[in-house]
Design brief:
Radius of gyration: 19 Å
Structural class: alpha/beta
CATH class: Alpha Beta
Strand content: 5-15%
Distance between the termini: 54 Å
Low-confidence stretches: 1-32
CATH architecture: Alpha-Beta Barrel
CATH superfamily: Glycoside hydrolase, family 3, N-terminal domain
Largest sheet: 5 strands, parallel
Number of strands: 10
CATH topology: TIM Barrel
Number of domains: 1
Helix content: 40-55%
Length: 366
């Protein structure tokens, strides 16, 4: 009880034990954070572009996608099943994208396992809910990451790090067990991805396992108290951060105990104070789909993206093919008008460059 009480006060500080990741040898969250590559060598237009993950319809990348990648006005793309019907088309598409980006594109997909497999012909076949030990989680994640890497995908928007409660919208998608058990499985999956050269993404911070509505379809509120979130929802994300996970995806739910007026993806309290300050996460923060109903119920996508970046987000995930035309100009205008926002964009772009460096991608040039 004393531990939970301490967590309730301000959650838990960073580890501070100087331990090193067993997969990468990278310093833990408690040591001096690495310095991202300077984004100042990029133009402002490119810095804004590095904050955006694009999407498109069809099995070939449209010219406007390739043009943005060539210009550095997009960090990369997310691929769905509609884009990659078979292994040959996946390899051809990712090759085309990297050709346009000179080998510097983030190519992401959503490959959790079970029913959530955007690359339907690739592993892992079992859902996370069927994996009860670190060994099975590691095996499934390794197989999935290896298949993605062979197809040219370098970022997986998995694993789900939420602790599902009875009736949760994530039942069937989350690992089984309590926070400690889920944390062990998440760590195993993150390290397995790293060994295969694919960036894992722990989602949906600060925990969506209590939600009964999918934020893709409707607004959701997680009414848990701070102490409950600290004890039962945050530990898997702490485990992911300790394993040096390269990305964390924020939830679009509202957590009144943390921030009464802002959903998590737009909350500096959630992103900067808790995720970075208290859990010690040093990687890139990415939104869930910016077109989710939980987002557009509050604002248009351009304003939502601006709020997310201002709050500490580094990558805005756009799953609508036309969203770049709305979001990019707005972020660029705000960056030109506000020195504070311009500094935030530069910081975000620097973290994206660090992510690309970790994935052995070429960095954009002005």
């Amino acid at each position: 009880m004393a531990i939970v009480a301490a967590l309730a006060g301000a959650f838990v500080g960073s580890r501070g034990d100087g331990a090193r990741s067993p997969a990468t040898g990278a310093p833990s969250a408690g040591t001096e954070p690495r310095r991202p590559p300077p984004a100042t060598r990029l133009t402002l237009e490119q810095q804004v572009g590095q904050v955006l993950v694009m999407s498109f319809d069809g099995v070939q990348a449209p010219e406007y996608i390739r043009r943005r990648l060539r210009a550095g006005e997009g960090a990369g793309v997310i691929l769905f099943g509609k884009n990659v019907p078979d292994a040959r088309s996946l390899k051809a598409l990712t090759g085309s994208l990297q050709g346009a980006a000179r080998g510097g594109a983030l190519v992401a997909t959503d490959q959790e396992g079970g029913p959530i497999r955007s690359v339907s012909f690739a592993p892992p076949e079992p859902s996370q809910a069927a994996l009860a030990s670190p060994e099975t989680a590691r095996t499934a994640a390794s197989a999935g990451a290896r298949g993605l890497r062979q197809g040219g995908v370098n970022v997986n928007l998995a694993p789900v790090a939420d602790v599902a409660t009875p009736g949760s919208v994530l039942s069937g998608r989350a690992y089984p067990g309590d926070a400690r058990a889920v944390g062990r499985l998440v760590k195993a999956a993150v390290l397995a991805h790293a060994r295969e050269g694919v960036g894992a993404t722990a989602k949906h911070f600060p925990g969506l396992g209590r939600a009964t509505a999918n934020t893709d379809d409707a607004p959701a509120t997680v009414a848990a108290q701070r102490s409950d979130l600290a004890a039962s929802d945050l530990p898997p994300f702490r485990a992911a951060a300790a394993a040096d996970v390269p990305l964390v995806m924020t939830s679009h739910a509202l957590y009144p105990a943390l921030d009464r007026g802002r959903i998590a993806s737009q909350s500096p309290i959630v992103i900067e104070r808790i995720l970075r300050g208290e859990l010690g996460f040093r990687g890139a923060v990415i939104t869930d789909s910016i077109e989710a109903q939980a987002v557009i119920a509050r604002s248009n996508v351009a304003l939502a993206a601006e709020r997310a970046v201002a709050a500490g987000t580094d990558l805005v995930l756009m799953t609508g093919s036309g969203s770049w035309n709305l979001i990019y100009p707005r972020l660029l205008r705000r960056a030109r008008a506000s020195s504070d926002f311009r500094e935030r964009v530069e910081e975000a772009a620097g973290r994206v460059l660090e992510l690309k460096r970790r994935l052995r991608l070429r960095l954009p040039r002005s």
